[in-house]
Amino acid sequence: MKREKKVVMVIVEGPSDESAMGGILKEYFSSKEVQFAVVHGDITSDYDTTRDNVLIKIGDKVEEIRSRYGYRLSDFVSIIHIADTDGVFTKDCIKKSEVKNIQYYEDHIEAVNISEVEKRNIHKSEILSKLYSTGKVKDISYRIYFNSCNLEHVLYNELKDFTDDEKEILSDDFAEKYEGEVEAFIEFISDSNLAVMGTYKNTWKFIEKDMNSLHRHSNMHLIFK
Fold it and tell me: What is the pLDDT along the chain (225 residues), one digit of tens a residue?
C-alpha cells in the first residue's frame, strides 16, 4: 500500500528566511514533507495584491508546489506563512529623512516619502488582517505568523537595513547554531521577551496595537504548539 504523503508548505519572503528556518522546520516536521515557497518579495505589500485576490495568490503558490512535485491537493496538511510586520500597524510615526531605503526604529520609521509609506502601511495592514482571519486556503489549514519588525529583528535582535548578502550570512550562521537543536530553538522563540502570549487571534490583536509592530515580537512559537 502506497504511503500517503503529508505536505507542510511554508511561504516566506526571501531565500535568507528559508535558510534560517528551513532546517528547523524540516526537523520539527520530520514525519512530513516540508516544501518552501519563496515569494522573492512581500506578497502582502505588493500593490497587485488586494484583499479580494490575496487568497487566490496564496492558492497559486500552492499550485506551483503541487505541480512541481506532483502532489495532489489532498496531500497538503497545512500552510505556514511567515511574514514581517514592517511596523505597518503604527500611526503618525513616520519621519522624513534622506535615506536610501525605509529605516525602522523601535519608536519611529524614517523614509524619503512619508505619504508613500503611509499608503503602503494601510495597504499591507489590510491584507495582513484579511490573512490572519482566514483559516483555510484551497481547503488546506492556513496560518500566517509574524516577525516584528522583521525576521532579522526577531532572530538576531538587530533593526537595520541589511543587504541580501548580510542576510544570507546571518541566516546561515543561525541555521548552523540550531542544526539538530529544535528544542533549543523552540525555547528561544518562546521566550517571554519575544513571544506574544495568548491565542493566535490575540497575538495578532496585540501586534495591531500602538507601536507593537515596530517592537521585537513574534508569534512563531505557535507553529510548535
Answer: 556 789 999 999 999 999 999 999 999 999 999 999 999 889 998 999 999 999 999 999 999 999 999 999 999 999 999 999 999 999 999 999 999 999 999 999 999 999 999 999 999 999 999 999 999 999 999 999 999 999 999 999 999 999 999 999 999 999 999 999 999 999 999 999 999 999 999 999 999 999 999 999 999 999 999
Selection from 24, 23, 54 nearest residue 39 by Cα? 54
Domain ranges of the chain: 7-86+124-224
The helix/strand/coil state of 87 is coil
Instruction: Give the integer Cα–Cα distance in Å for 136 and 120.
Output: 25
The C-alpha atoms of residue 220 and residue 146 are separated, in whole angstroms, by: 7
